[in-house]
């Protein structure tokens, strides 16, 4: 079986006019704001206009703890969205917009792959309608107003050594991680240590993803904490008079982007917050539209089920008030074999040949991870469906092994060949999802708003990650006390840890037990609405490799982009 | 006479559908790429499709040496564009996209004013279709690839102390002028002194403005010089394999943006290169479309006639091969009175009362500047028309004084009330322009491509600025020799000097003589295609003031932006 390249498949696609895509969603075309032929923004008035329509089943796609290669969560999300039309239902997909930085770094697309892609992929991967640029602009305007505030007399009384707000750019640039700004002389600002993160790590991005409407976006931007006074009182974007301008820059970015899959399934592409220090989920406003646009709204949550799905439940759904009906846990033969502890995968290198040999016992040996992630759905009261994402190198006995693991947990399971076959290949998964979503919803949040921050952290660590407990570094304790004293104790918690293990140690495979989670420091995204403990080395500005994609991408005089994938 | 605020006028405007605007230009609507209701990009295929259509008269709008408040060049450009419909002709306007940085700095719009504005002004001033963001992205991708090149072994042999490429952001942020990057440790890049300019100062912006088509844009990006080897050999964006990716990021930005004036005159808004270190003119591709879209294409050149218009002729027209038919020199009573030397205007403060008293003699006393700028049009063989931009505080005798000065030079002159009256108020100017443009074209470049760089600089200094000669600092001589040795000697020259005097000394009013121009250093925009000698203190990253517009702009829950003007 030979599948053409993603680019070849994408460029051979027949796209439908956006009006037709909107009609499939029962979305009146008057709400479309066109951005070229194949992309439209949706006016937020659509939310109010559609709110009395029937409600779709709300399905989150998550995964076992992935290998460094990823296990095909985006392709599954796109493929499953396409699959519903093959079982007589209407599916709508909601996914994150990818960051442009990594597009020019490690070769590889974010639009899905094979016959499960979002098109046109050049638009999807480059600029789209400029929402990331709006985030960059709003974020850095706040940075400029902040440094100007220090320069013009510091009326808010900020402690220059306790400024927490950095700058952002949507580029992989390690040289910007740690910088000194304000050099040059008396007219050139106040010298201080500073740094840049990638735009997807901006709190403004998380605000975009977690706002229910424009008024709330405006309020959240105002609540962003930029630093503290010497007495430990938070200073906000509102305090230094930057939030209104930020909101003006973000106004149009809050409108979700409408695209389509290769099979013309509607796709809402909106926001792209980081998956470790932020929620790793697409926007609430997109889901508020998608939930009234079909029979099934399929949305993806970043990284494994302990990460993205947990935040989907306890941060995104808590904030939106929306309740999920089913969770798809993507599992691969490859990942479970790696969780057996017998293999090591390194990104950019060939797979070890032993990994490709038929070995269902090894799949069973790595079952603990899948079991725990299924359980992680159950503790939130959400019905899990295991999607066995088939690779050409898999063997039927290995798929059967995954099916047995799932069924031993009482979970539905189905093999999916959406990469090779498009929506048709995910039809069996779609049937299983439809059944699971029809069970009465038992959805529950893991902890109440008013639990103390340490209790929230410990609840996630013990119940979701399987830790025995949590150890706080002194700096972490100081920060938690500071946040609770400033009134931030009622926020949910987003644990920033590795995505390569359910534990906070990337080397621990399977479902580690008998470990304690070390919290090195704790930071606050007060505007976005969460506190994030740092458990490990979190990189918020990637670098470029020795031979990055940036060296190979080009554009022909006729406008064709080459080398993007 | 009381005129409503710019914002009130703009929000009361009745906009026509973009299809109607295109039809006014005989532009097939199939070439429109829609970006919301009131903005469209124009596909570049339109250039080929329209090239055999009748050619419009090509009119550049320039000005006397302005006061710090500006003399209404943009309002005149917009008003004159509108005026042609009042004399039975079709006008099209081509102007620069404004930078967002100053929008949040000093309060004041860039969309024209009064009844001569481009609408919708919120779109015009914020993001538009993201072209500036594309420039920021492409520029900073090159920066990242460059620092990565140093980090990964420096195969091109760059001298880290001779890196000339900086970074850019579209924000007024003085703290970014001088920074140290690459701090943190072994994994965080190579430490070095660096800095940020505002996006409009990016060479990529100048490339956007000066490319005739996408293939040429790609080539120009490749020719950008990022630094030098220890032996003084230039290292380019092509050498470090970044130019293709930059072109991919810039592909859609090369399509000009179509908007309209309050009177529904078509406006091409495209590119916004700095007026001192770059050309200060809008894009060639926009003009290549506009020149076949009506009877008159009216375009604005930044700053006074010694600056923007000189570059319009000797850089933009040299590069495009297009030939201007008339030049409008905007003059105000206020500016000529200031050139008399009797008054001083400070931005942000009230005008001195004595300036507002009826005093035609004082206008005559400041005539030298207008005479010299008229002469500066003549030495390029272009017919000048003096537009007397009327202010409510002017007196008829003062307008008459300007008319006498113009006519003593054999130039046409007319009073314009476009601010208060829209296009109707500029009808007399439009008639004069139509007459001037009907004279046989005598257009000539000031110097040939193959003149040595020093000769080019001296030609501009003596013939346009009225200097006795040029003095080069040692660093300037070194750079000129370096550029000529690297094969850049055939490029035109863009003298970076103050816009507040025809001389390089901002304090010298009128038409200074008996002075020599000091060239402190010389830089090269090899990709954009010009060499720029620095004659004075050029600031390429503005700062915010004590009470910037950023503190007052806001957005209401219904999406209305307030405080923008």
Automatic annotation (TrEMBL), chains A, B:
Transmembrane segments: none annotated. Its EC number is 6.3.4.3. Keywords: ATP-binding, Ligase, Nucleotide-binding, One-carbon metabolism. This is Formate--tetrahydrofolate ligase. It comes from Actinomycetospora rhizophila. It catalyses: (6S)-5,6,7,8-tetrahydrofolate + formate + ATP = (6R)-10-formyltetrahydrofolate + ADP + phosphate. SUPFAM superfamilies: P-loop containing nucleoside triphosphate hydrolases. Belongs to the formate--tetrahydrofolate ligase family. The lineage of its organism: Bacteria, Bacillati, Actinomycetota, Actinomycetes, Pseudonocardiales.
């Amino acid at each position: 079986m030979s599948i053409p390249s993603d680019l070849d498949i994408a460029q051979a696609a027949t796209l439908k006019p956006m009006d037709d895509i909107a009609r499939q969603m029962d979305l009146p075309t008057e709400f479309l704001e066109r951005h070229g032929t194949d992309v439209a923004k949706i006016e937020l008035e659509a939310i109010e206009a559609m709110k009395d329509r029937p409600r779709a089943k709300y399905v989150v796609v998550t995964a076992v703890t992935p290998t460094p290669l990823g296990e095909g969560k985006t392709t599954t999300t796109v493929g499953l969205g396409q699959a519903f039309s093959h079982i007589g239902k209407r599916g709508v997909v909601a996914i994150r917009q990818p960051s442009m930085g990594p597009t020019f770094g490690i070769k590889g697309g974010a639009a899905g792959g094979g016959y499960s892609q979002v098109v046109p992929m050049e638009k999807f991967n480059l600029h789209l309608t400029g929402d990331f640029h709006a985030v960059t602009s709003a974020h850095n305007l706040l940075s400029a107003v902040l440094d100007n505030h220090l320069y013009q007399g510091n009326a808010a009384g900020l402690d220059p050594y306790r400024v927490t707000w950095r700058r952002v750019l949507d580029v992989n640039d390690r040289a910007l991680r740690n910088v000194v700004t304000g050099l040059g002389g008396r007219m050139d600002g106040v010298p201080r240590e500073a740094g840049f993160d990638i735009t997807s790590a901006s709190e403004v991005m998380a605000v975009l993803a977690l706002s229910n409407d424009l008024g709330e976006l405006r309020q959240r931007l105002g609540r962003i904490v930029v630093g503290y006074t010497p007495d430990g009182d938070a200073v906000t974007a509102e305090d230094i008079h930057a939030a209104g301008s930020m909101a003006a820059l973000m106004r149009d970015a809050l409108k979700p982007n409408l695209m389509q899959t290769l099979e013309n399934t509607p796709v809402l592409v909106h926001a792209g917050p980081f998956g470790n220090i932020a929620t790793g989920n697409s926007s609430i406003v997109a889901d508020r539209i998608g939930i009234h646009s079909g029979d099934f709204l399929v949305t993806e949550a970043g990284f494994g089920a302990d990460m993205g799905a947990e935040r989907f439940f306890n941060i995104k759904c808590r904030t939106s008030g929306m309740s999920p009906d089913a969770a798809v846990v993507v599992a691969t033969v490859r990942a479970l074999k790696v969780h057996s502890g017998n293999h090591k995968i390194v990104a950019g290198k060939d797979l070890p040949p032993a990994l490709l040999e038929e070995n269902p016992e090894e799949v069973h040996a790595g079952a603990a991870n899948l079991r725990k992630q299924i359980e992680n759905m159950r503790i939130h009261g959400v019905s899990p469906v295991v999607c066995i994402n088939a690779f050409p190198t898999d063997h039927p006995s290995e798929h059967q092994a995954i099916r047995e693991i799932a069924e031993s947990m009482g979970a539905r399971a189905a093999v999916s060949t959406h990469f090779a076959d498009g929506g048709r290949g995910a039809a069996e998964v779609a049937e299983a999802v439809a059944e699971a979503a029809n069970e009465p919803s038992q959805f529950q949040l893991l902890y109440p708003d008013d639990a103390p921050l340490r209790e929230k952290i410990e609840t996630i660590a013990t119940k979701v990650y399987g830790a025995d407990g949590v150890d706080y570094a002194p700096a972490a304790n100081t920060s938690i006390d500071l946040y609770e004293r400033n009134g931030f104790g009622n926020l949910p918690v987003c644990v920033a840890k590795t995505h390569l293990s359910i534990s906070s140690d990337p080397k621990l495979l399977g479902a580690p037990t008998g470990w304690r989670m070390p919290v090195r420091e704790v930071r606050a995204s007060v505007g976005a609405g969460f506190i994030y403990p740092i458990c490990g080395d979190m990189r918020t500005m990637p670098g470029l490799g020795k031979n990055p994609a940036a060296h190979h991408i080009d554009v022909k005089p006729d406008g064709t982009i080459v080398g993007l994938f």
